[in-house]
C-alpha cells in the first residue's frame, strides 16, 4: 500500500496530465473547480493534501471521475 505522500503524488500527476490534456491553464482549472489558482498549483506540485470534495471538484472540471485522479499513471500510455 502506498504511503500518504505516494497518493498525493499520484493525484498531482493525474491532475497536471488531465489539465494539460484539455489545454487548460491552472487558472482555467481553478475557475472551473471553484478554487484558487495557487491551490491548483499546490495540488500539482504535491504540496497540498486536498480533501475528497476538492478531488471531486477537480475531476468534474477535468471531465473525468474522482477515481481516475487516484489511479497511478502508466508510463508511456495516456488515459486522458
UniProtKB/TrEMBL annotation:
<dbReference type="GO" id="GO:0005829">
    <property type="term" value="C:cytosol"/>
</dbReference>
<dbReference type="GO" id="GO:0003677">
    <property type="term" value="F:DNA binding"/>
</dbReference>
<dbReference type="GO" id="GO:0003700">
    <property type="term" value="F:DNA-binding transcription factor activity"/>
</dbReference>
<dbReference type="InterPro" id="IPR050807">
    <property type="entry name" value="TransReg_Diox_bact_type"/>
</dbReference>
<dbReference type="InterPro" id="IPR010982">
    <property type="entry name" value="Lambda_DNA-bd_dom_sf"/>
</dbReference>
<keyword id="KW-0238">DNA-binding</keyword>
<feature type="domain" description="HTH cro/C1-type">
    <location>
        <begin position="15"/>
        <end position="69"/>
    </location>
</feature>
<protein>
    <submittedName>
        <fullName>Helix-turn-helix transcriptional regulator</fullName>
    </submittedName>
</protein>
<keyword id="KW-0805">Transcription regulation</keyword>
<dbReference type="Pfam" id="PF01381">
    <property type="entry name" value="HTH_3"/>
</dbReference>
<keyword id="KW-0804">Transcription</keyword>
<dbReference type="InterPro" id="IPR001387">
    <property type="entry name" value="Cro/C1-type_HTH"/>
</dbReference>
